[in-house]
Amino acid sequence: MIQDLENLRNEALSALQASPDANALEQWRITYLSRQGKLPAVLELMKNVPKEERPTLGKLSNEVKQALLAAFEERKAAFEGSLLDVSRLSPANDYRPIGQNNGLACAQELEDEILRLGPDKVAAFIFEPVVGAAGGCVPAPDGYAKRIREICDQYGVLMISDEVMCGAGRTGTWRALDKDGVEPDIMSVAKGLAAGYLPLGAAIYSDKVSEAFNHQPQTGHTFTGHTACCAAGVAVQKIVTREKLVERVAANEQKLKSMMADALFGIDAVGDIRGRGYFMAAELVANRQTKKPFAAEHKLFMHIRAQAFDNGLICYPVGGNVDGVNGDVIILAPPYNATDAELTEIVEKLAKSVKQVLGRLRLG
């Protein structure tokens, strides 16, 4: 790492000697600082770079995109004030509803916000059908997605479905929104597409979107359509189809949820068990009745991740799901071909880890 930074510095100096341009200097400082993890400094420097030379949203990391779009305070902090502002709505979460008919109440917020801003100023609505890192396996409430589709159509707003985590079969259908009976205008899909063997993501869009640019999308990024990555994706999807793994995930959804409920039974801190398919989570709360979260300083979710790893389980910890700061959720996302014995081992190790951490921190 140190040698890489040294090489980068030397390369920058050589380039600047050949063309001592102020903008070039800023670009090299941005690259140099970003590789050292100094993101606030990088974003401050970006303000001095001409807009046409700044990275596009497509080139930004997943961390930056989450900071831009989600109310995820921990991830937003480093980028605050340096990215475009966007409108945000209340989380569509049946565990913490905002109205009696939660799905329609949440959808109404979208229509109200479109009308407040003016339909001509709203390009798209972006959401996760089953919220991943920002909420912890939160499925769209009943009726929510269908009403969102109607609102987007009514006001000429694109409906964009972020299925990077919940798509490609993870929730029991290849498209997560399929369960809601809705098709988006644009859908992003990634993680499960090539099963992690090689990095691969895709943007899938409707004929309506395609017609807007004469069916000639601009795909000029360096590794777009990378042959080896696409081959890995094809191979994975052939196996998923041949072994009927998406159907297996759908058939086992209730089994996995029940196994989690049984394993975590008796732990007062477990407030909610939710999800779809093989994308399940347990939310931990300080008070079940009020759903009050544990104080953020405990970092309960991180302690459980570390304990679970020591116990032989890799889980996904989520913090800040309640208000951007407080909240603790643990996600389980087993392989599609996990056996019943392996599912049992997974939930038992999760329960053991939760009990150990709550006992050690004297929180339960």
What does this structure look like?
- Helices cover 42% and strands 12% of the residues.
- By secondary structure, it is of the alpha+beta class.
- The protein has three domains: 2-54, no CATH class; 102-244, Aspartate Aminotransferase, domain 2 (3-Layer(aba) Sandwich); 252-361, Aspartate Aminotransferase, domain 1.
- The strands form three sheets. Strands 1-4-5-6 form a four-stranded mixed β-sheet. A four-stranded antiparallel β-sheet has the order 7-8-10-9, covered by helices on one side. Strands 2-3 form a two-stranded antiparallel sheet.
- Helix 2 (22-35) packs antiparallel against helix 3, helix 11 packs parallel to helix 13 (340-361) and helix 12 crosses helix 13.
- The two termini are 42 Å apart.
- Residues 15-26 and 38-59 have low confidence and may be disordered.
